DNA sequence: GGTCCCCATGTGACCGGTCACAATCCTGGC
DNA sequence: GCCAGGATTGTGACCGGTCACATGGGGACC
């Protein structure tokens, strides 16, 4: 058949129509599964579609119908475990509904840069999902024009949830609370905390869960050490904490920080969990294989991504509207890095 | 000013035209920076654009002009470090050229599922980048219709490179060669290898680089242990190797496998690097903080992603055409996990 | 046999841009 | 004062679909 070398224009519904001897509208009906098309006609059209290798242009569809069946995910990072997993969850859910998924990386938290990126994403049409775990993400979420359908993946829900722009989140407070109680229950006098940066000026959910557990137990409240996201910062924080012989339990804002802390303790010659217990957050894939393996709190990021998409889907299509949102339940995973404090002589 | 509650249709160039008292074509000229527009006119149009909050619809642009300025990345995974970094590199380069980036995950390597995913991606318009490090990716690359612009990120270039569908790759053979030579130079009799799955039936580049180094050194060639991608498989492979007292050096197909191997050796009571040396591949962010920190070969995945985009850009726009492709140079990073073999008594 | 309706199909306009070409304006040269 | 010709601007068609409505062809029913 058509094996001309040069790239030819892909077949349109009018080409198919001509080939099948019907009008373009009939072809449109066939692709959309409209009931009132005579079976013989449908057959002919399908044959023509097959022969010409016709594929409906998503672009034209979006333009003509308004519904674009696309989501753009705005995120500051694609390589960190948590972010990547959320993205994976979104993609999974989107694919099931045959939505296209776009990504935009917020490389800087600079006001203008963020605004530009939001504009780009908005131009793509369709809905938006903003991962607002960090300053760049939070700014982006704030910069989304009011008329755009958007769902935020946030650290903590603000006091006033807007029905038109829903949010999803995990119960970080509860997670930190559980982890801290676990460490306290092992007999530690108190638990130190290496924090991830808070996305907002307010105290992060993780910090407040940690603090609540300490208060309930009447334990002293040491000042949280401000970390960042990666192992390097955890390493620095760990060195600082290793100098204080009173420190016997450390909770870290994520598993990467915990990794750095473990390394620093090792370098300082303090054994884990013999002298110091360490717990992380997220249950990244490698955490189970560290030596010592890491006690951590597992969060369902993939599920979070799926939920975010489901909500957005509800905003975009009335029919798919769902309840404001199910919070996933964090799960404490106890491994080797936590144990009773050293016996005081 | 328009603060009517209901979502109103975004402004089109004709709305802007009316507001500015010019024709829609003039507006089009202004957005595209066409030279022959009188400054005063341009001014008026720009004012109208600003006032109406006009944003040019990417959809309409793509439909009317044919050029879609979009890339879709097909990949089997978004969470693994290598994949995620490539994606990040692609996004970075694409953003610089103001291209939109879409992703499609190949969840199964099943022929039909892969074909469906390719079709979806093709429907999005624009170019394709396929990460073909695994069976699903390889199948996807093969399933891309001939008329679609596509760039493959592959493990090893095949014998016959097609000028119309370029590839990028890292020099995995060289990387494995370097790592193996490093271990041999420390005095190990030979080096065992825990392999990542090969994307094709042929021997992988990493395997052949490893083998070449052994041959050149006249070292015995043990059978590679077939691993997979994650730490769990590395763990299993590590247990197996730990049973053989002759094993004193292990090269792993990636850092995740190496992590599992380290853990298995620890469990078996064999010290690293005292009794056994271990080296990985990729230099994942956590590898430097493991205990012992991991000797590995750093590969520039982000750069690979950028190169992939650059090539695709060249295919899509004549003007941006570039040379077939620069291979990034792998870099050996020696850390604690490798050292001389134990002294034989 | 005529009317009413539903089924199957076709026609024209439109979505928001671009492209090719026509029309108008302005300026310089003679 | 008139005409050529570049600078500006406008008009109509088109990209590949959808939507709203019009049209023709059978039964079913009276």
UniProtKB/TrEMBL annotation, chains A, B:
Pfam short name (any one): Peripla_BP_3
Domain of life: Bacteria
CDD domains: HTH_LacI, PBP1_LacI
InterPro entries xrefs: HTH_LacI, LacI/GalR-like_sensor, Lambda_DNA-bd_dom_sf, Peripla_BP_I
Boundaries of every HTH lacI-type domain copy: 11-65
Entry GO MF terms: DNA-binding transcription factor activity; transcription cis-regulatory region binding
Entry keyword set: DNA-binding, Transcription, Transcription regulation
Descriptive protein name: LacI family DNA-binding transcriptional regulator
Source organism: Streptomyces muensis
């Amino acid at each position: 058949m058509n094996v001309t070398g040069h790239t030819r224009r892909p077949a349109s519904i009018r080409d198919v129509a001509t080939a099948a001897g019907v009008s373009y509208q009939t072809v449109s009906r066939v692709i959309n599964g409209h009931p009132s098309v005579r079976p013989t006609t449908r057959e002919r059209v399908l044959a023509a579609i097959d022969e010409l290798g016709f594929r409906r242009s998503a672009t034209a569809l979006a333009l003509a119908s308004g519904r674009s069946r696309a989501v753009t995910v705005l995120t500051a990072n694609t390589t960190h475990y948590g972010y990547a997993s959320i993205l994976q969850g979104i993609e999974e859910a989107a694919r099931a509904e045959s939505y296209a998924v776009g990504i935009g990386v917020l490389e800087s938290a600079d006001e203008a840069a963020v605004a530009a990126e939001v504009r780009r994403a908005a131009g793509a049409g369709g809905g938006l999902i903003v991962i607002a775990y960090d300053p760049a993400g939070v700014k982006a979420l704030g910069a989304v024009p009011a008329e755009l359908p958007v769902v935020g993946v946030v650290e903590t829900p603000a006091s006033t949830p807007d029905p038109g722009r829903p949010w999803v989140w995990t119960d970080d407070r509860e997670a930190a609370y559980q982890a801290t109680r676990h460490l306290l229950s092992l007999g530690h006098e108190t638990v130190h905390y290496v924090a991830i940066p808070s996305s907002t000026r307010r105290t992060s959910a993780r910090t407040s869960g940690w603090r609540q557990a300490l208060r309930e137990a009447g334990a002293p409240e040491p000042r949280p050490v401000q970390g960042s996201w990666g192992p390097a910062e955890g390493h620095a924080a760990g060195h600082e904490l290793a100098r204080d012989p009173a420190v016997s339990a450390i909770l870290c804002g994520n598993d990467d920080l915990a990794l750095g802390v473990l390394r620093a303790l090792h370098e300082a010659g303090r054994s884990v969990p013999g002298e110091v217990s360490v717990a992380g957050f997220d249950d990244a894939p490698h955490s189970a294989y560290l030596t010592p393996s890491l006690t951590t709190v597992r969060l369902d990021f993939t599920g979070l991504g799926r939920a975010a998409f489901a909500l957005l889907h509800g905003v975009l299509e009335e029919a798919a509207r769902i309840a404001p949102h199910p919070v996933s339940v964090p799960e404490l995973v106890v491994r080797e890095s936590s144990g009773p404090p050293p016996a005081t002589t």
